[in-house]
Amino acid sequence: MQGQAVGEVCTMLPLRRVPAVLTFEDNHNEVEHEMARRGVVMRSVIERDWLESPETASVLASYVAEGQHIVVADKVPVKLIIVDRRIALLPLDPEREGEPVALVVHRTGLLTALGSLFDEYFEKGWRLRASGTGPGPEGPGKSLLDAVDRQIVALLHVGLTDAAIARQLGMGHRTVQRRLHALMVEVGAATRFQLGWHAARSGWLDETPANPLESHHG
After folding, report:
1. In the chain, is it the N or the C terminus that has fewer CB atoms within a 10 Å radius of its CB?
2. CB atoms near residue 23 (< 10 Å)
3. Which of 187, 188, 180 has the alpha carbon at shortest distance from 161?
4. How wide is the angle at C-alpha 16 spanned by C-alphas 13 and 20, nearest 5°?
5. How many CB atoms lie within 10 A of CB 8?
């Protein structure tokens, strides 16, 4: 199916504990490089738990750097691939642990519904970006953070609450919350966890003091 794709391949990838027929790394090496060469647009929705593995997170970041469009959802309901909006493939029983059985869906109302399901998750998901390429006021590739925002993110990264961050930096609690919210909106993060992951992947923490608890106030 991927080999015959002309314009677009959409995938949804939950984290399942059953053996995979083909890992996404192998699929990338065997098929996706060729699709990219042919100009096929690749869009994916992955479950957040994939990012718990640093190795997997690094692999996904490399795919984004190559031009794939990947978003993260807290939960993904089903493993799914849709090719050119004309054919889809999904497991007949997602929990089956033995020989996998797949359902192929051609142009029907079910295919339309599956396409709408993918679009909804893709639009609401948190967009992965290549390290250091988040858009910002200084243009692509520049840091989004000024010195204060960088320190706020560093303190959040080590586990401090908003109130504790405010005390460390000598600013109001609401000011910290407002700045964190603005950063989350800027990068499309729905949770503090997502903001922290984006900060780590984008190198936002690289220029913070060795001890992020050292405040410049007092």
Report:
1. C
2. 10
3. 180
4. 80
5. 14
The tens digit of pLDDT for each residue in 78-125 reads: 999 999 999 999 988 777 666 778 899 998 999 999 999 999 999 888
Which has the higher per-residue pLDDT, 211 or 38?
Answer: 38
What is residue 151's three-state secondary structure?
Answer: helix
Q: Rounded to two decimals, what is the model's pTM?
A: 0.59
**Tokens encoding 7:** 């314009």
> Could you please report the per-residue DSSP string of 172-189?
-HHHHHHHHHHHHHHHT-
Classify residue 55 as left (phi > 0), alpha (psi -120 to 50) or beta: alpha
Q: Which amino acid is at 200?
A: A
* One-letter amino acid of 2: Q
> Which of these, 2, 75, 64, lies nearest to 32 by C-alpha position?
2
What's the CA gap between 59 and 113, in Å, rounded? 30
Give the separation between CA 48 and CA 13, rounded to whole angstroms: 10
- Amino acid symbol at 213: L
Q: Is 84 left (phi over 0), alpha (psi -120 to 50) or beta?
A: left
Residues of 98-119 as b/e, b for ≥16 C-beta within 10 angstroms?
eeeeeeebeeeeebeebbebbe
Specify the residue for token string 């889809």.
Answer: 88
Take residue 146 and report the two structure tokens written for it: 């000024």
